Each structure stands twice: as C-alpha cells, then as structure tokens.
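protien #1 (seq + structre)
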Amino acid sequence: MRQIAIPLILAILSISCMGEAKEKLQKAKTGFSNATSIVKDVSSMESKIEELKEATPLTHEQLKSWLPHELDDMKRTAFKTGQAGMYKVNSVEGVYKNEDNGREVKITIVDGAGPTGSMMAAGYGMLGNLDMEEEDEQKHRKVVEVGGVKAQQTHYKKRNNTQLMFSYRNRFLATFFGNEIGPEESWKLVKQLKLEALVELAE
C-alpha cells in the first residue's frame, strides 16, 4: 500500500483544511477564474462527506469477489485485502502481469465509506476537479476526463508508465499504475475493471 500512502495523506490534509480553504477562496479576487468553481466543489463535497460517513463499507470478501482474475492479456499474480495502513479503511489491491511482454498493472481500490474514508473520497474528488497540467523531460501530468471520470493522469515518458488517480462515483478511490502501458491503453484497462459492479455491491 506504500504507493497510495502519500496521496491519502494529502487527501486528509486537504479536507481537514476545507473550512479555512473555503473562507479564503470566497474572499479571493474575481481575477482568479477557478475560485468560484472550487468553492462550489467544496460545498458539494461537504454534503457528500456527511452522506459517506453513515455508509457501510464493503467487506473484504466483497472487494475480493469483485477483483478480476485477468485483465486483458495479463493474469492476476497477487492480491491483498484489508485496511489501508493506519487509515482504517477497507481496500483491495491486485497485481496483473504478462511475463512475455513485460506489461504489468497494479490497481488499488479504497472504499470511501465511513468517517475517515469519506474525507479521503472528498480529497480524491478535488484532484479531479483542479484544472492543471505540467510537463518536463521525465513526465507529463494533467487532469483529464475519460468516460465521465475525472482523474489526475501522469505519464512517465522514458518507460511509458502511466498512473491514474481518481474517485469513482464519489466513493471508490482508485489508483492505477501501468508498467509499459501508455495513457490511452490504461483507460481501456480501467474500463475492463467494471467499477460499476462495486457501486452495485454497495447498494
């Protein structure tokens, strides 16, 4: 779970300062074009946090039953269910490999239900709503929207690795990492995960 530790910490910090951030943003000058939309996002997330606090997290067995055994031409070589580190939220992790071509995928899903999970879910949602893009010799990072899902997408150029971080249906926090897999193909693999089935399990 080490790969998701830093994003989760950032998520918690971003939400713990939500009230202060909202007040400052409301006082921001009109010249900052994103200020109004961000304030609206914060208000919406406050409502979502309250809803998720009362939701019952999926069990480890439910998360395991959802996790695919295969992903495209890759077979699942490892999996892990349990609580994500010290955060006390239920999660599932799967590793998929194709030994012939070197392709590898690691997918981690955290259920955002419950007091702590709800704050994480809101933090991940903020990542997708920020309008940002940066690029250097090593990587290209930007916020994208694919199939109705907003995500922070990072493409590591030299090795053609891709990382996607997003909140699905404002509840399930997904971190996808593809080794020797570009952004376009990464999104095709995400579609194969059938994340909607997680939503059905939670209903």
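ok now protien #2
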Amino acid sequence: MDIGCGNGMLTVELARAVGSDGYVIGIDPSADMTAAARERCSDYANVEFRAGAANSLPIEDESADKAVSVQVFEYIEDVDGALADTLRCVKPGGRLVISDLHFGSLIWFSDEPDRMQKMLTSWNQHFVSGSVPERLPALIKARGDRVEDVLSFTMTDHQLKPDGLAIMMMHLMKQYTVANDHVDPAVAQSWFDEQLSLARTGRFFFSMTQFVVVVRKKG
C-alpha cells in the first residue's frame, strides 16, 4: 500500500521494485492526484488506485505485506487512529514505513528573523502536527508492535538549489501566507526576495530533518 500516494511518484517506483509478481495499491483522497498517478503508472499492470484516507483505508484486513506513507501523517488529526487502521490492513509480521518531516528541526537563516518567524508561523498552520516523528515510536510500542528502526535524513543547503526543498517551500509559503491573509503580500514578497539575495551573496542557509520510522506488526 502507498498511503497518500498523491501523483504516484513513489507508487511507480514501488511498482518497479515489486516486479510483475507483486502488486501495489495507491490510496489518496484526491481525485485529481489519483488521475495524475494513474497516468504516471499507466505502463504497469500491477498497480491500482483507490480513493481513501489513512484513517479509513479501503483495504481488507491483513491483506498487505507492506505499507508506506510519506509526509501524510503530519496532516492527520488522529495519528493513533490512522496508525491503527493502517496496521489493520497489514499482515501479521508485515512492515510499515512512515516518513515525515520534523518542523522543529528547521534552521533557516534570515537577516530579518521577526519576518521569518511570521512566515513560519503562518506556514505551520497548513499541517496538523510538525512533530509526528517524535510521537510515533511511543504510539507504536503502546500497540504492542515493534519499532525496527528510526532513521534520520537531514537536508542541508548553503546554496539555493533550483530543484531543492527550500525553493519549493519558498514558493508554497509565499502563496499560502498571502492566500490565507496571514501576511501582507508585500511582506511575503520581501521575505522571498531576501532569500534570493542571500543566495546570490553566498549567505543562504537552510536545514531540516526527515525521519523514517520502520514498524514491524506483531504476530
């Protein structure tokens, strides 16, 4: 299961990995996203997509060997409920991998820290929780399942890469803060322009950590 598969970027890699003997089910609540995912995975007969969310999965009990969820749980109010429903679908002894950013790990340089904080305070409202990785192991252990590993991947840039996480967040944050009337458009643009200027003068710095929690279901 690829939970919260979005436009299928991971789903197609999973299809390649399992080969013709395996089968992948992508699950997402967005019809637009699953339409894009179907197109991306159109060459693979071993993939299907279903409409659903992490806490109400359209999957039979104990039917999946493995499940993966990337940057989905941070948008869920009832993390424990989503964890329970996901593991309901996994066979005893099966594996679940959950990967989310920890926004408490964010380091982002600015000469205007107050303005930066306004942008981040706004952005923090687009997800339910920015601290899912630190909460997951205890929730898993309380269920009696096993935490096999917790891996951390820190993304650090001292240059503003055109395809990096920072520039993607810059565009999304500027759009989000303005669209939700959290920050004046001129302030958001000034923040955006400052980051471009810092990059041009060699003073840009950005770092954030993504955590991968590997779960083995009891049984």
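The first strand starts at residue 2 and ends at 3.
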